[in-house]
Predict the structure of Long-chain-alcohol oxidase.
Amino acid sequence: GKICWSRSLFLNIMKETCLPDVQVDENSENPHWKAIGYSVEEWQRDPAEAPAPSRPLDNGVVETRALNDTTLLRSLADRGLPVKPGAQHTVECDAVIVGSGCGGGVAAAILASAGYKVVVVEKGDYFAADDYSSVEGPSMERLFEKGGIFCTSNVTTMVFTGSTVGGGSAVNWSACIRTPGEVLQEWSHDHGLPLFATKAYVQAMNTVCDRLGVTDECLKEGFQNKVLRRGCEALGLPVDAVPRNSSAGHYCGSCNFGCPTGDKRGTDTTWLVDAVKHGAVILTGCKAERFILHNNSGKDGRSKKCVGLLATCMSNGITKKLRIEAKVSISACGALMTPPLLRNSGLKNRHIGRNLHLHPVSMAWGYFPENKQAVPITGKSYEGGIITSMHRVTPRTIIETPALGPGAFAAMVPWESGRDMKERMSRFARTAHAFALVRDRGSGFVDCEGRLRFTPSRDDTRELRNGLRHVLRILVAAGAAEVGTHRSDGLRLRCKGVRDEDLEAFLDEVTIEKGPMHSTADKWAVFSSAHQMGSCRMGSSPKDSAVDGSGESWEAEGLYVCDGSLLPTAVGVNPMITIQSVAYCLSKGIAESMTNAQKHY
Ligand SMILES: Cc1cc2nc3c(=O)[nH]c(=O)nc-3n(C[C@H](O)[C@H](O)[C@H](O)COP(=O)(O)OP(=O)(O)OC[C@H]3O[C@@H](n4cnc5c(N)ncnc54)[C@H](O)[C@@H]3O)c2cc1C
Ligand SMILES: *[C@@H]1O[C@H](CO)[C@@H](O)[C@H](O)[C@H]1NC(C)=O
Ligand SMILES: *[C@@H]1O[C@H](CO)[C@@H](O)[C@H](O)[C@H]1NC(C)=O
Ligand SMILES: *[C@@H]1O[C@H](CO)[C@@H](O)[C@H](O)[C@H]1NC(C)=O
Ligand SMILES: *[C@@H]1O[C@H](CO)[C@@H](O)[C@H](O)[C@H]1NC(C)=O
Ligand SMILES: CC(=O)N[C@H]1CO[C@H](CO)[C@@H](O)[C@@H]1O
């Protein structure tokens, strides 16, 4: 049958199949999980062991959700932000930043360290290591935008994006890959952005990796990565080690739901800590509504000047809007939210919201019964570092492994019958997944908040199919008993005694369908994406870009973008290091221009 993948459907499937009411009994055991061989270590503080330890950002964070007008005023004043009386709560600072993710976290650290008073506005809440639960259900709701799922308007792509202090960085899969050399060359040469050819950019990547403690040492690789490595080796294909920012011995497997041990370093445990140390204030549960633009005398052809922003706190006790006046305003709310924020503020540049890239992904699975391989591959699908190995198929396609909890697993499995579902769930712990990820050339649009359009180009679809066929070959070569895709008709192959021509015939059947809205057939598959980029790209002219090479809006002086939406194209690898390195360079530039402006007066 056909299903519209919606959040409520997804959550329903999660709940009905394996997370009944997303509840866990007192010993934090879910009977359904036991049946499927799933157990996660819960990292909960013993309540008897009071008091609660202080959290890394306590000195700078103002959690507005718990406040009312009176207590907000006091908290702001305590943090060095006296409120001026009036119809709005008005505060003044040097730089206001929207979003505390990859881009926003870095910008906050750089500007605060340069001696400027920084205010970060974050609509998510603050969770420290102690609050993270490894339990999939509650974490999805709390940490992700709309509980994890963002559908494109015609529902062919599930888009995942983080929404919490730390943004995507707190939930990411810890793969730390530098911007590839060819991409840097393309950006500097074809997009007129000299930054990407400079030593300064390479140094920024070094600094970012140092700050995150990136290492490619991995003492104990997890089951899925061992499968990927084994399969590639059997086929004579090269495998690269993927550097992570967690320590070499780190093996918890739940980093994607917010790392409960605090070992993995998102911006919430790195850059934002630096920012707070230098006096930055982070307002959580606070949503930026629009930037405040005044008419400008026309400096550099910019007809507007940005003087700050208006934000709404999501607490019933806070009745007035917050007006944050600043010399410099920075949008760092990610490639899906920056374009609507700029549009709501009145910016008109036609590139705002275009050129959205998603790194579409297509996944396959292989079942490895315990001790049935000639040389056993030990472990469980949900344990270990998430991405420690990768294989490059073509210049545009890579293969990596995902982190799937039982809920996400159940939601992806094509529905054949209750019996089939039960069998698949019982194999969960020994089912390895791997995906092909494509550097998409085709691009989409962000229309308004929560609405996007995206269709991979024909070319991208071809790359995805080729990548998916490679994934299946690798799983077979690693010794899987059975392999398959997530296509709605349950395309799968039993591998025992399978001959080369059988495998080739099976692979010929692999297709990447266009999705339920376009396909009249019963067969379709869903792409997913966790990497959003490019929707406010930087460039050398307002004719072909949304902001200039320093991240400043072509229309409004003092308004900058500093997140994944800046990237001129898809980057082709996990984008976090690239986004942070770009943010590092641009915010250094912003700090410099602020210092120069001061000298003028
Ligand atoms: C599950 C998952 C796994 C990933 N794994 C990896 C990985 O292993 N390696 C890698 O390199 N990349 C990974 N990524 C991608 C990476 O995390 C993102 O590309 C990156 O975080 C994007 O950075 P950003 O600064 O553009 O936005 P984000 O980091 O998403 O930050 C945006 C922030 O802005 C906030 N915000 C949005 N709108 C508003 C508003 N109006 N007012 C106030 N606040 C607002 C959001 O709540 C969010 O916190 C992963 C992403 C996901 C979702
Ligand atoms: C705000 O909260 C404080 C502390 O919780 C409380 O004492 C005060 O009465 C509240 N003020 C208003 C106006 O609700
Ligand atoms: C993603 O995880 C890595 C590795 O744990 C970490 O270093 C990085 O900070 C995280 N991402 C971001 C954007 O911070
Ligand atoms: C700004 O300029 C526009 C037209 O250029 C004008 O309509 C508007 O009234 C001006 N606003 C202010 C506050 O001066
Ligand atoms: C999605 O919608 C867009 C425009 O609404 C359309 O151009 C595109 O072909 C659609 N793609 C799919 C796969 O339905
Ligand atoms: C090489 C490197 O910097 N490794 C660091 C990785 O992160 C851990 C902590 O998360 C550090 O202890 C390592 O030194």
Remarks:
- The first helix runs from residue 7 to 18.
- Residues 154, 156, 453, 455, 514-515, 517-518 surround 2-acetamido-2-deoxy-beta-D-glucopyranose (ligand 5) (CB under 6 Å).
- The radius of gyration is 24 Å.
